[in-house]
Each structure stands twice: as C-alpha cells, then as structure tokens.
Amino acid sequence: MAYMSGFGNEFSSEDPRCPGALPEGQNSPQVCPYGLYAEQLSGSAFTCPRPANKRSWLYRILPSVKHKPFIAAPCGDLTENWNEVEPDPNQLRWLPFSIPTPTKKKVDFATGLHTICGAGDAKSRNGIGVHIYTCNASMVDMCFNNSDGDFLIVPQQGEILITTEFGKMLVEPNEICVIQQGMRFSVDVFGATRGYILEVYGAHFELPDLGPIGGNGLANPRDFQCPVAWYEDRHVAAGYTIINKYQGKLFACQQDFSPFNVVAWHGNYTPYKYNLTNFMVINCVAFDHADPSIFTVLTAKSTRPGVAIADFVIFPPRWGVADRTFRPPYYHRKTALQHTRCFMCLSPKLHPKNLNFALIKSRWQFDGIILFG
C-alpha cells in the first residue's frame, strides 16, 4: 500500500485513474477537472497563525452535503458523562475486554466502542476521552465521522484497514494512526479485533518540542505516513449510513453513494499513521532516570505553556545503562491522569504464552507501555 511521508507537510495526491484531476493555479475553479466538486476541509479557524493553520482541498464526484438529515442513534457504551460513576482516587485495572463471537453477534468498529474514562467535554472544546474498541466485523456501507475531536487509534489485536476520504491505510499492532476531526472513515477487520483510542477535544496532535535534544530524535517527521488518493464511484441503492459523533452523542444519516469519492486532494490536514518501532529512544547513560516525558511520541497542547491536554508516550525496548541507580524507575505522584496499557507485540522475543511470565519477571522492562495523560 502506497503512502506519502512527513508530518504536517503540504501534500498533494490524485488517483492515477484520473490524471490531471488536481486543478492548477487555484483551489476552487469555476469548473473543476472531470466535473468534480471542490470542498475545503478546515481543521482550524481561517485566521489561525500560519504554523497552526490546517486545511485540505478535496475534489470529489458528489458533494459531502448531499445526504438526508441526521437523527439520533444509539450510543451504546460510548459516553462523555463523567458523572455516571462516583469519583475514585484509587489505581484501577481491569481484564481485557472480551471480543464478541461472530456466530453470536456481529459487531463493527462503530458499535464496538466502549468509553473507559475522560475529562472535560466536547462542548467546551477542552478535554479527552479514552475508549476501547472490540469488533469482529467490517463496516459495510457505513462510515464514522468525529465532529468532537481527533481519534488516536492504537490496534492491540488484529490489523485494521481504514478507508478515508484521503485514501486507505493498513494499520497493524505496533502502529498507531490519527484520524483528525471531521474526517470520514470506515474500518475493515480480518477477524477478532481490539484496540485503544485516545480522543482529544479542541486541539490536534503534534510532535513534542525537542529542546536540547536537538533537531533529531524521538518520533522523526519523515517516519509518519499519510495515504494517497483513492476513490470509488459507487451508488448504494439500499442506503449508505454516516455515523457522526457530535457533542458526545451519536447521530446517523443516509445517502445513496459512497463518501469515499475524492479523486484528488491537497493540503496539510490529513489522516496519518506511524510505526512505533521507528521511535528513536533517548535514555539515561550516567545515573538516575530521566523523566518519562522523553518518551513522548505525540502531544496535544493546552493553552498553558508546557502543559498538554494529552501526551501519547511509549516505553519501547532499549538499553538501560546507568551507575548508582536502582533499575526500576522512581515512584512519583502527579496531578495528571495516566492510562497505561501493556503490549506484547512490540518485541518478538515475547511469545504470547510467555507474556505473563515476562511481565512479572521483567516488569520494569516492559516492551511496550502506552500512556495517556
């Protein structure tokens, strides 16, 4: 599967079946090539400073507004009402969510979302939600659109094929992908599938500042990948369903064509994916332990300098070399929410049947930890 590399770049792509589909010299000509419709998808206010201004131009067969009205849809276990349960200051843990058996119940990505925790709310455009998805079926004639914020998706079991308006991405365990606010996408699975989602409201994920680390290190921009243009001109007589997450609730509408009819596009507001094995670890080689912030892959900044709405952090395999330092990292208390998940997939030397043993015997050398905070 083909991709373009870079983070936040100005990309351009057109499906090779329609050469010359990208207009030359202007974004919205009176008549687009092939009779396409020009649409701009904005990920920021028009007047944002240039470094923070996010938008892409899409050239599609039919306009995305051509659908029937949205109506309320069942939310299942998806919520942002944090008052449903009483506050609990204790550390919490739980067994993996079970994946439904296909012969008993078919569950796709949209219906298999379960909210774990969160803070803030989408209405005020400030906060996060942490979800788990469990599914055993692909989304058929259906797509999902998040009007509340960005989804950072972390597959844990089973690869997922994500079709977006910008093209396709195959995302496997040990990879992550980000579907930014307002982008329509559909998820195909190939068996029992489970993973995690970090949702942020009111901000987009960006690379952390490197400071004295210098110009290279951690997640390098060149290792991020975004899809190339791909389209389908498909009429759906039985109706195509668009699920929209809006202010914490789900709504659905119908249309008679596939929304993945974008023949060409250009801009800097795109979905993207990243392979975690490309993360260049910075570690201690003298004494003591560096703070875990040196393992930040992506961050969603708040309005307070140096304070994030959420950080996505990993502890990948690395050499732990230090003098006069106890091997486990130091204990610490903090004011941030921490959601930690362990993965067996980041290291081939951990066979599934040896996972528990490995984590117990080497619990301070986890081969993969995901932090949402």
What does this structure look like?
The chain has 373 residues and is mostly beta strands. It folds into 2 domains: 66-263 and 270-276, Jelly Rolls (Sandwich); 281-371, Jelly Rolls. It has one helix at residues 355-361; strands at 3-5, 11-14, 37-42, 55-60, 71-73, 113-121, 126-135, 142-146, 149-157, 160-164, 167-171, 175-179, 184-189, 193-201, 224-227, 235-246, 249-257, 262-267, 272-275, 296-301, 308-314, 339-342, 369-372. The protein has an 8-stranded antiparallel beta sheet, with no helix packed on it. The two termini are 33 Å apart. Residues 344-373 have low confidence and may be disordered. Residues 2-276 form the Homogentisate 1,2-dioxygenase N-terminal domain. Its EC number is 1.13.11.5.
Return the structural class.
Answer: mainly beta
Question: Element order, helices and strands?
Answer: EEEEEEEEEEEEEEEEEEEEEEHE
CATH superfamily of the largest domain: Jelly Rolls
- CATH architecture tag of the largest domain: Sandwich
InterPro entries: HgmA_C, HgmA_N, Homogentis_dOase, RmlC-like_jellyroll, RmlC_Cupin_sf
Pathway: Amino-acid degradation; L-phenylalanine degradation; acetoacetate and fumarate from L-phenylalanine: step 4/6
Domain Homogentisate 1,2-dioxygenase N-terminal: 2-276
Active site: 289
SSE diagram, text form:
Blueprint: E1 3-5, E2 11-14, E3 37-42, E4 55-60, E5 71-73, E6 113-121, E7 126-135, E8 142-146, E9 149-157, E10 160-164, E11 167-171, E12 175-179, E13 184-189, E14 193-201, E15 224-227, E16 235-246, E17 249-257, E18 262-267, E19 272-275, E20 296-301, E21 308-314, E22 339-342, H1 355-361, E23 369-372
Parallel strand pairs: 8-16
Antiparallel strand pairs: 1-15, 2-18, 3-4, 4-18, 5-17, 6-7, 7-14, 8-13, 9-12, 9-14, 10-11, 10-13, 12-19, 15-19, 16-17, 20-21, 21-23, 22-23
GO molecular function: homogentisate 1,2-dioxygenase activity; metal ion binding
Active site: 289 (proton acceptor)
Enzyme class: oxidoreductase
